[in-house]
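Hi all, a correction to my earlier message: I attached the wrong file for 60S ribosomal protein L44. Here's the right sequence:
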Amino acid sequence: KKGKDSLSAQGKRRYDRKQSGYGGQTKPVFHKKAKTTKKIVLKLQCQSCKHYSQRAIKRCKHFEIGGDKKGKGTSLF
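and the right structure:
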């Protein structure tokens, strides 16, 4: 378990000086992100009128276009 932080440490003194007075929070407060994946969005362009349309597909951590599909009972090598 972590011990109590010292009030006289240089970083704490600097932080308290910066926070004092009006102006609210001065340093970024880290908030853990809830999502670990992003939705994959394909930008498709019309060949005739050059109009873009976006198609969202499922969430995934790794996305590869044109990669070899994993077959049943086959190894990757």
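Sorry for the mix-up. The CA atoms of residues 38 and 59 lie 6 Å apart.
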